[in-house]
Amino acid sequence: MDPNTILALAKRRGFFFPSFEIYGGMAGMFDYGPLGSSMKNNIEKLWRDHYVLGEGLAEIFSPIISPEEVFIASGHLSEFTDFSVQCTKCNQAYRADNLLEDVVDNPDSMSKEELHSAMTEHNIRCPSCKGELSEPESVNLMFKTMVGPLGGRDGYMRPETAQAMFFNFHLLYRFFREKLPFGIVQLGKGFRNEISPRQGITRLREFNMMEAEIFFDPDNKKWPGFEEVSSRKLRLLPDGAEEGEMSLEDAVGQGIIANEPLAYFMHVTRDILISAGLDEDKLRFRQHLKTEMAHYAADCWDCEALTGYGWLELVGIADRGCFDLQSHIDHSDAELTAFLRYPESKEVETTSVVPNLSALGPLFKGRAGVIADKLGNLSGEDIVRGVPVDVDVDGEIISIPPECFEVTTEKKTISGERIVPHVIEPSYGLDRILYTILDHNYHEVDDYVTLRLPITIAPVKFGVFPLMAKDGLDDTALSIDKKLRKKGILTYFDSSGTIGRRYARMDEAGTPFCITVDYESKEDGCVTVRDRDTKDQKRIKIDDVAGVAASLDDGSITFDKIG
Amino acid sequence: MDPNTILALAKRRGFFFPSFEIYGGMAGMFDYGPLGSSMKNNIEKLWRDHYVLGEGLAEIFSPIISPEEVFIASGHLSEFTDFSVQCTKCNQAYRADNLLEDVVDNPDSMSKEELHSAMTEHNIRCPSCKGELSEPESVNLMFKTMVGPLGGRDGYMRPETAQAMFFNFHLLYRFFREKLPFGIVQLGKGFRNEISPRQGITRLREFNMMEAEIFFDPDNKKWPGFEEVSSRKLRLLPDGAEEGEMSLEDAVGQGIIANEPLAYFMHVTRDILISAGLDEDKLRFRQHLKTEMAHYAADCWDCEALTGYGWLELVGIADRGCFDLQSHIDHSDAELTAFLRYPESKEVETTSVVPNLSALGPLFKGRAGVIADKLGNLSGEDIVRGVPVDVDVDGEIISIPPECFEVTTEKKTISGERIVPHVIEPSYGLDRILYTILDHNYHEVDDYVTLRLPITIAPVKFGVFPLMAKDGLDDTALSIDKKLRKKGILTYFDSSGTIGRRYARMDEAGTPFCITVDYESKEDGCVTVRDRDTKDQKRIKIDDVAGVAASLDDGSITFDKIG
After folding, report:
1. B24 chain-A contacts, CB cut-off 8 A
2. Which pLDDT value is given to residue B366?
3. Which of A65, A69, A168 is closest, CB to CB, to B143?
4. Which of A185, A252, A228 is nearest to A423 (CA)?
């Protein structure tokens, strides 16, 4: 569907619209209006139903502003960058790779030098004034701020919600009674200070994410439930191979998808997106090329949807290995590890070096203490009994005679070992999913627009109308409206304009059903329920309507089965 | 309850904990762990049930980063400030009013000069090094950033979620078919770059808000439903009067609460907080003193709760008058007004001034056009027929002879007028509410901690345990766990440790009920359901347990009625 059609509908009906328009707008920022916010809530609920209730992952909710240390460890301070060029005449800034689209292949995976030579070769100039462009320069895309109003500490607005799930690992591991695998989710905003945002809500400076981090024993990447879905098929576009359908089992068996949990969460992703109303024929999983892989990823599959913008990445499912936990361990003193208990305890022999201070003292005087420490740090393997050993004290190599230390051997029973877990990360771009739902469900016939949203996602579930706003029809309609809302069903009460116009408005908003109270209602005690997609109408008893609505809402009946 | 007890429990069990601890922490920032996030979601749901489903308000979801223009109009750029003092010796910064607590009354409503003289009079020095302090200085508390990575536009992180509901008024008014009253809500983060944050999650730099803006015709401040609750009582502490209980009706009738909607939403607030488990005896509504009123408020009541920190403001319910809409109108070209239709159309007479160009031209040459514009802008009242009129052209007063213009009188039928609506704003601090729920529901007897959270709010609704993790008990328990989760009920499956320890862990997490599968279950097909508060246990058929759990969860039955 033409993006302009979707954007116009979105603004007209209040799904979403560019922010701050009364002040000239701000590129890359959008508001969700009443319909969009409700849809967003529904998408989040659907997602939590799968990840939190279904898979048993636990949710956390963390600050957006984070100290620099987090992004030094995560790599974002050095790696979360784009290459920009600036016009030497009009000063306008551009993403270098954007200017090379349709000129070369995959400009977004090019290095600075490659971009520069491609731009020179193809004589790329400023699109707005034809001025000469500067050389590409790497710019960091995090929003920066100062924490503490009087010259405090540098803070950055998180570019992803993931990091808090890593650096709080030890606390979360405890919540799961110290057992692997377990998983954490976070829903919330991410920020990316785009050089030149465009394409509506598909490339925002402030966007909505739903992320999960699932922690595994690297030697035992299993997720309960894989067996159950292993014969299901996904449409795969592997790196360096043909696109095609393949079962999870085969894809993992043939090494196309790296491991079971990666495949499993690709399948969960497909399920969620189909439930959200996406068109299965316009979905595929594309494996990242080696060159485009993020700095933290060992393997990554994008779930892409075909939209008016072309193939759009909606979800990335990455095997991040132990990159993040290890990196936070390296940059802090935290013990972000799991303890793996052996099936049976093992007896191991350890040797250690015990310094003999009464021999060291007279020989080395003031340096005896330092030398004792150095000796204590040696392992039994560094030592040959009866032979002097060399230690390095401030660059000086000192030979320590054998009478200055003893080697002791101990037998210990160990019940397990500490490991750094591996991580599978499904990361969902909520805004793009919402956009794609509109794109895939937009139907227009003779200028009549219907959004065929599934009821799970539809922002308003029922329109409730009195035929006329008088003669008690409005009171009856209002009381039905109230009953539905008491059941947690979001409605839209509308009492003005012709019924035809009111239906049309609801069809355009994606509302699956409308309930109309008319003059007959007074006699037969029934109301009309109308189905959006078939335009079929049925008469339902007023006393039954809240119950029927609840069943339609939770999917336990369909329209053709009622009445 | 002692805040340290609550903070320790919160961290131990994963309700919330200080953020970024592995990097030394960051004052004023907290993470919600699994229990806290679930509780936060439950509070938001309860709030939406009242405001969105119950009162029919619509939700929007807007960016956090906003351009400077928004906060010039809202007044935050000049008014969202605290007075800071800095130690001249150790450079530590403090909020001036914090240093005067327990020294003078209401230091937070003092002016810069008052603070300065109070600090001099009481010889206030640096609390950490006893150094001399600088004079109080006003500092803005918004976090600032740059939008566009290459020297873009100043952006600020919103200090409240309210502004988007104002500057998008015209779009939202349209969603409500251009009728007053209507209301909008927004849930999300607000930011305040505190000088020296303290007191756990009650004074955060990054906090969670739930705000509503309800727009009224200023001459008709009515809200449907007021009648229904007008006899209900609230505990009021009015400015300049004694604390006491009073019905909404009396409070409005006696002019203590300014108007019906203000009183109505105070009542809604009470309802929500009681449902969330707060202790009614520890709640009151305190009217703002004239001196502490925010720059935008015409009247304001705080709902305060008694906690371990003393009386804590949880919700502010303010009459913001037309301050915000008018201010955005003044700072932009937007038409943020409502059209009020008269009961009947009116005929009015309007006079207008029509310049006579053929007379102006020869007399004023090149300036004729400018003069014609000026004349056209005059109203009939500025004119005396047949008398010259003075116009100001670039500072020069020019007398225009009467033949250069005509005054025409027209009769027009007007059906209404444009007005700037007034706003009632209930603004909820989610973090403080969550904190107070823990505070009011914490019970400790002989070191045994029970959190008596209502099931609506409890982060985990049911603990599900196999007595032993073997002999099929675990499989039965897992299948019960799965059934509950399918019904949308969050559970915690726990198969290790003694049953007593597992119960204790759930009691401390506020989990209302636990389900245990034991060896008898194999024979009688029943499980034990245990009630947190009474410790009573009942046997329920395995086949019924999901249904019973759902009824306990939605409040349609209570524990004493089951079985």
Report:
1. 69
2. 87
3. A65
4. A185
If phi > 0 it is left, if psi is from -120 to 50 it is alpha, else beta; for residue B394 that is left
Picking from A45, A443, A556, the residue whose alpha carbon sits closest to that of residue A272 is A45
With CB atoms and an 8 Å threshold, state whether A20 touches B139. no
Q: What is the pLDDT of residue B395?
A: 85
Half-sphere exposure of B58 (CA within 13 A, CB side): 28
d(CA A551, CA A487): 11
Q: How far is B109 from chain A (nearest CA, A)?
A: 20
**Top CATH class, A47-64+146-324+424-430:** alpha beta
pLDDT tens for B148-181 read 988 789 999 999 999 999 999 999 999 999 999 9
Smallest Cβ–Cβ distance between A34 and the set B59, B65, B189 belongs to B59
Are the CB atoms for A532 and A506 separated by under 8 Å? Answer: yes
Q: What pairs with residue A451 in β-bridges?
A: A442
Q: Do domains B81-140 and B460-561 have the same CATH topology?
A: no
Task: Return mean pLDDT, chain B.
Answer: 94
A537 or B241, which is more confident: A537
User: Within chain B, what is the greatest distance between any pair of CA atoms?
Assistant: 112
- In chain A, domain spans: 47-64+146-324+424-430, 81-140, 343-418, 460-561
Between CA A442 and CA A438 the distance in angstroms is: 6
Residue contact A34–B149, C-beta within 8 A: no
Closest-CA residue in chain A for B139? A149
- Asked whether the beta carbons of residue A20 and residue B332 sit closer than 8 angstroms, the reply is no
Alpha-carbon dihedral of residues A222, A224, A227, A233, nearest 10 degrees? -80
Positions in chain B short of pLDDT 50: none
HEC string of B243-265 equals CEEEEHHHHHHCCCCCCHHHHHH
Span B471-510, pLDDT tens digits: 999 999 999 999 999 999 999 999 999 999 999 999 999 9
Is B476 in a helix, a strand, or coil?
helix
Nearest chain B alpha carbon to A336: B22
Tell me the pLDDT band of A267, cut-offs 50, 70 and 90: very high
From B227, B274, B277, select the one nearest B252 (Cα to Cα).
B227
Q: How far apart are CA A143 and CA A29, in angstroms?
A: 14
- Counted across chains A and B, CB pairs separated by less than 8 A come out at 229
CATH class of the domain at B81-140: alpha beta
Tell me the average pLDDT across A336-345.
93
Burial class (CB in 10 A: 0-12, 13-18, 19+), A363: middle
DSSP string, A259-314: -HHHHHHHHHHHHHHHHTT--GGGEEEEEPPGGG--TT-SEEEEEEEEETTEEEEE
Check B177 against A494: CB less than 8 A apart.
Answer: yes
Core vs surface per residue A57-71: b (16+ CB within 10 A) or e: bbbbbbbbbbbbbbb
pLDDT for B384 equals 78
The torsion angles phi and psi of A508, rounded to 5 degrees, stand at: -70, -25
Q: How many residues does chain A have?
A: 563
- The residues, any chain, with a CB within 8 Å of residue A38's CB and separated by 6 or more, are A459, A460, A490, B59
- The beta-carbon neighbor of B69 closest among A14, A23, A148 is A23
Indicate the pTM of the whole model. 0.91
Fold of B343-418: 3.30.720
Q: Hey, what are B557's tokens?
A: 């039955």
Residue type, B100: L
A435 pLDDT band (50/70/90 cuts)? Answer: very high
- Asked whether the predicted pLDDT for residue A394 surpasses 90, the reply is no
Going from the C-alpha of B149 to that of each of A23, A86, B66, the distances in angstroms are: 21, 12, 15
> In chain B, whose CA is at the least distance from the CA of A52?
B490
Domain B460-561 has CATH 3.40.50.800: yes
